[in-house]
Amino acid sequence: MYKQIFKTALVAATLALAACGKGGAEGASAADNEPVRISVGSYNLNNLPFFIADANGYFDQVGLKVQTENFAQGGSKVLQALVANSTDVAVGFYDHTIQMQAKRKDVVGFVLLSRNSGLVLAGREDGTFDPAKPETIKGQKVGITAPGSSSDFFVRHFLAQHDIPVDSIALIGVGSGAAAVAALEQGKIDLLVNYDPAATLITERKVGRIIIDARSDEGARQVYGGLYPTSVMYANRSFLEKRPEAAEKIARAQQMALRFIADNSAEDIVAVLPDAYVSGDRKTYAHAVENARAIFTTDGHFTPADLETPLKVLREFNKDVANTDIDLSRTFTNTFVERASAASTPAQP
């Protein structure tokens, strides 16, 4: 089944690229000189490869002009911007492509940055929630990055697994990073679902404790039943068809960033980031990078079998997804990362 999904995706992407090529190389070349608007939803570490590519000037190195914007309000805001065509490319979570297919919107992931969730559920030391007794979550104020985000889905998945109504808790958008940790510390929320660096900040500052941890492969399988791909570069299919060269350049820049993360220490990785990207002090942030290192891909490729996990999770509580025949092969393509890989591989003598 997974091989068929993968094959179908490659065929679809190849046909799309061939179609756009017939329109005239001159038009594509002219369009490729235009800046690409890239928006990112938060400073969570799942998006680190994008921050590295931006900070190290990799987009310039591959010959692509970009205009970046950080909404700092969660991935759902970035998704809205993409659908409204106020941005060209989003740094968001893969599960949004599934949601959009259910709404008949053709949104496609073309670089996978984070192969796993990276999410944790944390609470204060004096908290009363015990995952061994799921009903103890009732009445709790649960902080998430934003409504409609993957942290939101995490909570809804837990509730669905235990037949607990969503209205038995209060879901509160608190953003990510230090702001999210402050909400827990100040008692504005009882529980927090978030990513690193928030997860590491909570433990290092002794604000609370990690109750459920899906950062590791084992933890993700316990929470979701499988790996849960998260951060991707995604765009409307129309953009990928109109500007395939730009998409390939983005893939090349992100592969450079992923190699940088794999080849360098956490301290060296943090050293290249501007202060705006760093939550808390750099030493603590470096610990967060090390804790999150396992979630990153090595080259941006999607593994089709892993994409079944977010689809299964969304079907538990998203009626649109549950009632739609989702074709996963249309939610992603490996075409551009494969072209980028081929371009960076030295020719054999």
Automatic annotation (TrEMBL):
Give the residue spans that cross the bilayer: none
Q: Where in the cell is it found?
A: Periplasm
What main location does UniProt list? periplasm
Q: Which UniProt keywords apply?
A: Signal
One of the record's GO cellular component terms:
periplasmic space
Gene Ontology biological-process annotations = alkanesulfonate transmembrane transport
Q: Which PROSITE patterns match?
A: PROKAR_LIPOPROTEIN
Keyword Signal belongs to the record: yes
Would you indicate the residue range of the signal peptide? 1-18
Concerning PANTHER family, the annotation shows:
ALIPHATIC SULFONATES-BINDING PROTEIN-RELATED, TAURINE-BINDING PERIPLASMIC PROTEIN
Indicate the family of this protein: Belongs to the bacterial solute-binding protein SsuA/TauA family.
Instruction: Provide the protein name.
Output: ABC transporter substrate-binding protein
Q: What is the lineage of its organism?
A: Bacteria, Pseudomonadati, Pseudomonadota, Gammaproteobacteria, Lysobacterales
